[in-house]
Design brief:
The complex is a heterodimer of chains A (469) and B (782). Chain A is mainly β and 469 residues long. Chain A is built from four helices and 31 strands. The N terminus of chain A is likely disordered. Chain B is mainly α and 782 residues long. Chain B is 67% helix and 6% strand. In chain B, strand 12 and strand 13 form a beta hairpin. The longest helix of chain B has 34 residues. The chains are: A mainly beta (469), B mainly alpha (782). Chain A: It is found in: Endoplasmic reticulum membrane.
Chain lengths: 469, 782
């Protein structure tokens, strides 16, 4: 145990060194070594993006096909997205291959460390090296401090992490860059060598750190970017084979930054926009698909008149919306956005005769975290055998919905995902089979109902039911 | 042979006439519906104004929780801390109607929201009302007059003002119920059918469910019955028309919780029972007259009259004593103010403070019924030629409603259908006379013999009066042989009568032929007047009456500017305050706050408790500390004021302030109106009284207002405010909307007691504190 604790000066900071490699099952941690790790943490918005570049070498005897990534338990709850790419080729002709990433449980994980396994495309033989590009995104990781601010103050937040990359492997050399939105940094932890240049902090390079090295890191800085969080978003996509795709999105928006305290003065807000309410926001931008039509924006008490639409038939349409009131920290608002889209842009027929809807997952609002996203794809009445193909794990279930003059109801494919960030705005598909004859069911029903009605009228006028003549 | 051909031609004509009237009615319905959609097109599909928000909220509750919970609903989100029993204090007709429509649509899987149904209830029922007007006028003066009256009613501005899309108020369905009740009464009177009498009672029940104005029906119909009896028009039909209505109608009315025993106890219903008794006495007299010889009858009359008078006197004396023992003589305040227009302003400021309870001005008659005002007298004259039971009823209706509309501007709504019916009759008769004259003159010019022409005119241009009757009989022959058989005798009698009258009218019509030029000019003038009416109505519907009043718009050189401050404030309250927080505001905004912000309010537009409203009025007109104490004792956390001074919105709280003072002072005498007045006026400029400048309403309205333009210029009062720089000690501003129209303040928590500080402040402000303690004693919440 003590063998691990190399005598090093740790600059009066607590170091949590967890000597566990003896207990970890599997030999992978012995044989993999990270030669160089570079981490870039982007804190410019409230969505924390971390770019991690690992140069991995297999120093063991056998070939390795898996690389483990470790996350402290505080981060894993906020981990919204994780992607690993393997870089191959020379500098100019680099190509990236996406690698499979799956969560893994190790029986003897120290301090509830969580792992993700990256499955390499080609097993790494002894002595070989590989370069991995890893992107992960954390939400709700900037903690406002002070927790409550008044209208005139700007918002300061904490970011906590480790100066050393948490890893089950020995890291030969590592550097961390932290990018912050402005020059205003209240304080940051120094783990020598530490350097600050403008709005970038540099930690490292640190040499030869054993597995599970940890050195707490705290940055306290100003971040006045809108902390717009959609606590719940329900997107309903209704397919009509008469040529329209109707989308209804119900938002529960909140400002997740430092809570607003005390008075809100409209005079100050209107006359001194640079000093007053800098952390509040009142504009939101939604990127809607091209050829969008009949857009509406309202809430439960009526239309909200403050919105602008820049519709385009080729490019992305932009809808700029304002909630009814500016959102200060802790304030909430709910609203509904609805729009129609031409069906031929989104509905296709696959080679096996099934139809599929190709639509974007995620939230159309720019730079927004969605805590809970529910997508409901309402298939036309009579559609059978629905199946959804989503590039990342989501919860799926089926529901039935009754809409205009439905008899058997429409099948609804419900997809649920927590912690959605803008990188999740990628297409997903819903496959189903549908016979076009079902399109005529409702018109025929109406026609026959009217026909019966008129027949009944005619019959009533011509039938004499009186007893006495 | 020729007669058969002629008969065939006549049936064909009538068939065409029926189809034509059907399509005209359909189009009138479409017109009535679509002219009310300006508000949706120009603004949005949203509930309007104040009361409709309450109705909307009740409907939401009904659709969510079902009918039984609705009857038992105790609403704890209003009139805090008293609450309000909604099920027993609301006229449920409108709510149940919209709830039923919603339920029907949803069970057909047509997923319309409750809001959509509520918004479009009023236009739909306007279409129904215009059809009911057709039926009623048809009973009075024939189909032509009916169609004209229906078309006029479809677009009469007075009715539009209460029934545009989104104006989800009781009147929306009540006018339909009113007209259909009158129609069924007339129908029963004309036919003597018990079937229609039962329907009439049901229609009356619907009216009782819908609107407090049902008392108008239950007083008007007895008046008409009495009129008929006095003028010697008693018949068994009159008995059938009236007696079942009183019995069934009163029983049904007592089923409505809000009416309950009022249906037999209050003075508003007294007339109907009195007439009911008189009717029976008269019926008895007629019966006895029938079985006795004239001599015996005279003896019997003297006997009965002498005994009857004694009994009557005794009964009346008891009744008078009973009625006189109650302070309001058994009348509700609103009814009393109808009988005595000065009553409300003398005794109940809260009724007088509502703008729609004020007497109308002359221009408002022109605005609301336009050219109908000139046509009504002509219609009344037409009703007297000849006077029938039905036409006498319509005359009585218009005379009484003119009086009521003169007392309360809101009752213009009752007057409008009467005016439409009268004008419809007048227009139709005038057209009749003019076209017949033209035809007659044309035929003469073309060289026909006079006799032929006269014949032709009466044969071809069948006067509407006859047409209807023949029409009716033929219709029944064709369509309802079974019914017809039952009424064969009557029909024949009617036919004979019709022939008689037509023969009579033929001779009259010969006399009524006017010169060609005069008729053409008259016709053109009538068409021109109709066109003017249509233009005016469309303008009124589009410009004057379609604003939802929660969204305001103005046109500037940059284009349309929208003031959506009310909803901004309500949405803020809804999402950013605790769900159990209490919001105090003047009662005008109570319904909107509960419906849109879903927060508990102290008072709302159902002004049932004058003391409670007076408490809020007192708080608003007290200095800050006293107001804080009143509000704090009521658990209030937020105070909402409406302020129009920045953008020039005139109906804000400062302009309503005189009512707060007056109502508050009416209950708590330490609020004295003269303290707020300078030269008999409420002023907020430098001439204002110190009481005014220190009252809560002034402070909350103008807090930091001076910082907007540096001078504090109030655009509503067109003056600079009196006190510009001041601080709030017991309240803090938590939200102000974009155009400052709604300002929300939070009550500061009470300070911790610090011994030294208390002493110091006491010694320093000894005089005002003594004054304050004096006022505190009168404070009802301590």
């Amino acid at each position: 145990m003590e063998a691990l604790l190399r005598p090093r000066i740790m600059l009066s900071l607590t170091i949590i060194l967890i000597p566990i490699f003896l207990f970890i099952s599997g030999a992978s941690s012995h044989q993999i070594r990270i030669n160089n790790a570079e981490r870039r943490i982007d804190l410019s918005t409230h969505i924390v993006k971390v770019f991690l570049t690992l140069k991995v070498e297999n120093t063991g005897k056998t070939s390795a096909s898996e690389i483990l990534l470790a996350f402290p338990p505080t981060q894993v709850d906020h981990l919204a997205f994780l992607e690993a790419l393997a870089a191959t080729g020379k500098k100019k002709k680099k190509t990236y291959v996406s690698l499979a990433v799956k969560p893994t449980q190790l029986p003897d994980a120290p301090n509830e460390t969580n792992y993700y396994t990256i499955v390499l495309a080609n097993p790494l033989n002894t002595g070989e090296t590989a370069t991995l590009e890893i992107l992960y995104i954390l939400t709700h990781s900037l903690e406002p401090f002070p927790v409550e601010i008044s209208q005139s103050e700007s918002q300061l937040v904490y970011y906590r992490d480790s100066a050393l990359i948490l890893s089950p492997y020995h890291i030969k050399q590592q550097t961390t860059f932290i990018k912050i939105p402005s020059n205003k940094v209240e304080s940051f932890t120094r783990v020598e060598p530490t350097d600050r240049a403008g709005n970038e902090l540099k930690y490292g390079p640190y040499e030869d750190r054993p597995p599970y090295s940890y050195s707490p890191l705290l940055v306290h800085f100003e971040n006045n970017n809108p902390f717009s969080v959609v606590e719940e978003l329900v997107r309903e996509v209704e397919i009509s084979h008469w040529g329209n795709l109707q989308i209804t999105e119900q938002y529960k928006l909140a400002h997740a930054g430092a809570r607003h305290k005390g008075i809100f003065s409209r005079v100050d807000y209107q006359s001194k926009p640079t000093f007053s309410g800098v952390s509040s926001f009142k504009h939101l931008l939604a990127r809607l698909p091209p050829r969008v039509h009949s857009v509406y924006y309202r809430d439960e008490i009526g239309n909200i008149s403050t919105s602008h639409l820049r519709a385009d038939s080729w490019k992305i349409s932009e809808l700029e919306i304002e909630p009814r009131y500016p959102l200060f920290g802790g304030w909430r608002a709910t609203f509904v956005i609805g729009y129609g889209l031409p069906l031929e842009d989104f509905l296709f027929e696959s080679s096996d005769g099934r139809r599929y809807l190709n639509f974007t997952f995620g939230c159309p609002l720019v730079e927004t975290v969605v805590d809970k996203l529910t997508i409901k794809v309402v298939l036309p009445e009579g559609a059978k055998g629905p199946s959804a193909v989503v590039p990342f794990p989501v919860e799926q279930r089926l529901e039935t919905k009754y809409s205009y003059l439905d008899v058997v109801g429409r099948t609804v494919v419900v997809l649920e995902k927590k912690n959605v960030v803008p990188v999740h705005n990628i297409p997903f598909q819903v496959y189903y089979t549908f016979k076009p004859i079902f399109m005529l069911a409702e018109p025929m029903m109406l026609a026959s109902a009217f026909f019966l009605f008129f027949t009944a009228c005619v019959a009533y006028l011509h039938v004499d039911l009186s007893i006495r003549k | 042979m020729a007669a058969a051909a002629k008969a065939g031609e006549a049936t064909l004509r009538h068939a065409f006439g029926n189809v034509l009237s059907f399509f005209i009615l359909l189009l009138i319905g479409v017109l009535a519906f679509s002219i009310r959609l300006f508000s949706v097109i120009k603004y949005e599909s949203v509930i309007h104004e104040f009361d409709p928000y309450f109705n909307y909220r009740v409907t939401q509750f009904l659709t969510k929780n079902g009918i039984y919970d609705f009857w038992n609903w105790f609403d704890d989100r209003t009139w805090y801390p008293l609450g309000r029993v909604i099920g027993g204090t609301v006229y449920p007709g409108l709510t149940l109607t919209a709830g039923t429509i919603w339920w029907l649509l949803n069970s057909l899987n047509i997923p319309l929201s409750v809001e959509t149904v509520c918004v479009f209830t009023a236009p739909i029922f306007s279409a129904f009302a215009s059809w009911a007007t057709y039926l009623l006028t048809k009973e009075v003066k024939g189909a032509g007059a009916g169609l004209t009256a229906a078309a006029l009613l479809a677009m009469v501005p007075s009715y539009i003002s209460r029934s545009v899309a989104g104006s989800y108020d009781n009147e929306a369905v009540a006018i339909f119920a009113l007209i259909i009740t009158f129609y069924l009464y007339i129908k029963t009177l004309n036919t003597g059918s018990l079937f229609y009498a039962t329907l009439n009672a049901i229609a009356y029940f619907y009216m009782v469910c819908s609107w407090g104005g049902y008392t108008f029906i239950i007083n008007l119909i007895p008046m008409h019955v009495l009129l008929c009896i006095v003028t010697g028009r008693y018949s068994s039909r009159l008995y059938i028309a009236y007696a079942p209505l009183v019995v069934l109608g009163t029983l049904l009315a007592a089923l409505v919780p809000v009416v309950g025993f009022n249906a037999v106890m209050t003075s508003e219903h007294f007339a109907s029972f009195l007439v009911f008794i008189i009717l029976h006495v008269v019926a008895l007299v007629y019966y006895i007259k029938g079985i006795l010889s004239p001599k015996m009858f005279k003896v019997a009359v003297t006997l009965v009259v002498s005994v009857g008078l004694v009994v009557c006197c005794a009964v009346i004396a008891i009744l008078v004593a009973l009625v006189a023992s109650s302070p309001t003589k058994g009348w509700s305040g609103r009814s009393l103010s109808l009988l005595d227009p000065t009553y409300a302003s003398k005794y109940i400021p809260i009724i007088a403070s509502v703008s729609e309870h004020q007497p109308p001005t002359w221009p408002s008659y022109f605005m609301d019924i336009n050219v109908l005002a000139f046509l009504v007298p002509a219609g009344i004259i037409a009703c007297f030629l000849p006077l029938s039971d039905a036409s006498s009823f319509v005359v009585l209706y218009i005379v009484t409603s003119v009086y009521f509309s003169g007392v309360m501007v809101r009752l213009m709504l009752v007057f409008a259908p009467a005016a439409c019916i009268m004008s419809g009759i007048a227009l139709s008769q005038a057209f009749d006379v003019f076209t017949r004259s033209i035809k007659f003159q044309l035929l003469r010019i073309l060289g026909f013999s006079e006799a032929d022409a006269g014949d032709g005119s009466s044969a071809n241009v069948v006067p509407e009066n006859d047409a209807v009757k023949v029409d009716k009989s033929e219709e029944t022959i064709k369509e309802r042989p079974s019914r017809k058989n039952k009424k064969k005798e009557k029909e024949q009698m009617e036919k004979a009568q019709a022939e008689k009258t037509s023969a009579k009218s033929k001779t009259e019509k010969r006399l009524l032929v006017l010169p060609m030029e005069l008729s053409v000019i008259g016709l053109l003038l009538l068409v021109f007047m109709g066109a003017f009416y249509v233009v005016h109505c469309v303008w009124a519907a589009a410009e004057a009456y379609s604003a939802p009043s929660i969204v305001l718009t103005s046109y500037t050189h940059e284009g349309l500017h929208v003031f959506d401050d009310f909803r901004e404030a309500y949405a803020w309250l809804r999402h950013n305050t605790e769900v159990d927080d209490k919001v105090a505001s003047w009662w005008d905004y109570g319904y909107q706050t509960t419906a849109m912000a879903n927060r508990t309010v102290i008072v709302d537009n159902n002004t049932w408790n004058n003391t409670h409203i007076a408490t809020v009025g007192t708080a608003m007109s007290s200095p800050e500390k006293a107001a804080w104490e009143i509000f704090n004792s009521l658990d209030v956390k937020y105070v909402l004021v409406v302020f129009g001074g920045l953008v020039g919105y005139p109906s804000d709280d400062i302009n309503k302030f005189l009512w707060m003072v007056r109502i508050g002072g009416g209950v708590f005498p330490h609020i004295k109106e003269p303290d707020y007045l300078r030269d008999g006026q409420y002023r907020i400029d430098s001439q204002a009284t110190p009481t005014m400048l220190n009252c809560l309403m002034y402070k909350l309205s103008y807090y930091r207002f001076v910082e907007t333009d540096g001078k504090g210029f109030d655009r509503v009062r067109r003056t600079e405010i009196g006190k510009k720089y001041f601080k709030l000690t017991h309240f803090e501003e938590v939200f102000t909307t974009h155009h400052w129209m709604v300002r929300i303040y939070k009550l500061k928590p009470s300070k911790n007691r610090i011994r030294g500080k208390m002493k110091k402040s006491k010694s320093r402000t000894s005089t005002p504190s003594s004054k304050r303690s004096g006022s505190r004693k009168k404070n009802p919440w301590q």
